[in-house]
Q: What sequence folds into this?
């Protein structure tokens, strides 16, 4: 039985990509102690990476690191950091470099979210999500660039979302933050391409067994009708997101930069078409 929020490692894993495709690379993963970020850590480790997983909650990070090491046999170091604090970010990146000697891959997965109509969302509520998601992703990227990637190249994957493509209700803060992240992806891809750094976004759809899914109504009675909005007629899995990350970081994606890879079963193209239905459903979550 899965633990709360399903932060376990896979009991079995069958490789699609070569198991050594990322052998001995080092990945620095914000939000790597839970949900999608933890599964990204696991799957990268199953492809040969060592990882640094970071977020604010030390105990959860420590426990996740133990599970990740046991499941994969690779090294995993937990580091407590609030991505809104640039001094902490610098210390965390420096610590990662001291322990592993390099950072090949950066995954910006840290995020915060809640449902709120714009009419009752305070400026500080909006700012908080912008600071974690968008400014946090920039701060960590810039720090890793300054301290390592500028001289050595690397791969950055920013975890984004499709919310802003259709103006999803109750999500002006998260949509704005993810739009900013996608813009950062494109700007940095252009500026840092000459430094042999690829920068891409990965935009998941609704991924079951995650905090983000729960916050958006994943445990409500409406979950059945939510799945009907997805052309592939099911929610996504954390492993599907993590394997898309492996692809973006692999040599198969060596000419891909500034892209936004949507992994959502086709949902965004058909969601958000009925305003009255969306508002009615949201008011009952
Ligand atoms: C309205 C809210 C609110 C709510 C917080 N705020 N929750 N406003 N409705 N439900 C407001 C507060 O009133 C406050 O504004 C401001 O936000 C900051 O709140 P704090 O609690 O002080 O912030 P903090 O402790 O830093 O916590 C950040 C957090 C929290 C985002 C609010 O939920 C968190 O830590 N989340 C991390 C985990 C998480 O959310 N994971 C899901 C990621 S999924 P005032 O004005 O009162 O000071 C995801 C999915 C995206 O991102 C896309 C899916 C498709
Ligand atoms: P999650 O487990 O809550 O992941 C968010 C992570 O960010 C947590 O590990 C959290 O850990 C960390 N975090 C939050 N604030 C932070 C801060 N200030 N500094 C450092 N770390 C911080 O939720 P998830 O659903 O798996 O989401 C993972 C990513 O996927 C997010 O970027 C999210 O926007 C994106 N996404 C998710 C879905 C979905 O359906 N789940 C859909 C689209 C996009 P701490 O609390 O310990 O700090």
A:
């Amino acid at each position: 039985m899965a633990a709360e929020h399903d932060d376990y490692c896979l009991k079995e894993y069958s490789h699609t990509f070569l198991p050594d495709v990322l052998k001995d690379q080092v990945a620095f993963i914000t939000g790597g102690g839970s949900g999608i970020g933890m599964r990204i850590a696991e799957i990268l480790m199953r492809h040969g990476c060592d990882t640094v997983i970071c977020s604010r909650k030390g105990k959860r990070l420590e426990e996740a690191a133990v599970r990740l090491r046991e499941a994969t046999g690779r090294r995993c170091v937990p580091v407590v950091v609030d991505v809104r604090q640039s001094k902490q970010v610098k210390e965390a990146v420096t610590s990662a470099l001291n322990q592993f000697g390099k950072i090949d891959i950066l995954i910006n997965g840290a995020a915060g979210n809640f449902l709120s109509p714009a009419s009752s969302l305070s400026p500080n509520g909006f700012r908080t999500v912008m600071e974690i998601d968008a400014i946090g992703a920039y701060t960590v990227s810039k720090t890793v660039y300054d301290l390592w990637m500028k001289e050595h190249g690397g791969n950055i994957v920013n975890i984004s979302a499709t919310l802003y493509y259709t103006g999803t209700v109750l999500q002006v803060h998260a949509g704005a933050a993810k739009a900013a992240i996608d813009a950062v992806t494109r700007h940095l891809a252009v500026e840092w391409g000459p430094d042999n750094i690829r920068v891409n976004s990965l935009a998941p759809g609704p991924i079951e067994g995650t905090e983000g899914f729960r916050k958006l109504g994943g445990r409500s009675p409406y979950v059945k009708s939510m799945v009907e909005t997805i052309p592939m007629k099911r929610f996504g899995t954390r492993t599907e997101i993590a394997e898309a990350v492996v692809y973006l970081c692999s040599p198969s994606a060596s000419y891909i930069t500034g892209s936004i890879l949507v992994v959502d079963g086709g949902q965004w193209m058909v969601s958000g078409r009925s305003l009255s239905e969306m508002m009615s459903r949201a008011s009952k979550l």
In short: The chain has a mean pLDDT of 95. Residues 26-283 form a domain with the Rossmann fold fold (CATH 3.40.50.720).
